[in-house]
Design goal:
The chain contains 7 helices and no strands. It is an all-alpha fold and 194 residues long. The protein has 2 domains: 134 residues, no CATH class; 35 residues, no CATH class. The chain is elongated. It comes from Salinomyces thailandicus.
Length: 194
């Protein structure tokens, strides 16, 4: 069974280090969600199928319409021990970083530089007749604004990945719950997760 990566220590430095944040999300998704078919195939116990029928090779079948079903207990264990904890770890990191993005950032190293640039832009004389580009000014984005944009994008990606993964799990395991968010919330209540 796939092992979910450890959740990183939640600090503002993790959030502002976009490479580390994206690496954690990428590795976590790659371990469980991107390889969901392989993970589900690993749950099928070899040798539990009926005995070999030699007449089955007489006709060529394009592809099996139904894949072999997976034992419901194995599916439940996979969801409870691998899938949902992985999703929860990523949700925890994204929620924490969203909080960091909406908080004031007293340690922003570019704060003074942005203030200086803003002051120079206000003092600049604009004559668009002589220079049509003199009015343009593109203020530098604050770290918190860049982080908020990154979190928005990663949440959209997370939603797409979870819908795809849950659809594949539903095909193979026969999910009772059609909405992954409800299933995850049910797991959270059962596991005592916040």
């Amino acid at each position: 069974m796939a092992q979910t990566p450890e959740s990183p220590r939640l600090t503002p430095q993790l959030c502002f280090n976009q490479t580390a944040l994206r690496d954690f999300l990428r590795v976590s998704r790659g371990t469980v969600d991107d390889t969901i078919s392989q993970n589900l195939n690993a749950l099928v116990t070899p040798g539990t199928s009926k005995t070999f029928d030699p007449t089955s090779t007489a006709e060529r079948a394009p592809r099996p319409i139904h894949r072999r079903p997976i034992d419901s207990e194995a599916c439940r264990t996979f969801k409870d021990k691998v899938l949902f904890p992985s999703w929860q770890n990523r949700s925890d990191v994204l929620n924490y970083c969203a909080g960091v993005a909406t908080s004031p950032d007293p340690d922003d190293p570019d704060h003074v530089l942005r203030q200086t640039q803003d002051l120079k832009a206000r003092e600049r004389v604009v004559n668009e007749r002589l220079d049509p580009y003199s009015a343009r000014y593109f203020p530098q984005e604050a770290r918190t604004e860049a982080l908020a944009g990154l979190i928005r994008n990663e949440r959209m990606v997370e939603n797409i990945i979870r819908m795809r993964t849950w659809g594949l799990v539903g095909e193979r395991c026969g999910n009772v719950e059609s909405d992954y968010e409800k299933a995850l919330d049910t797991w959270r209540r059962g596991e005592g997760v916040r």
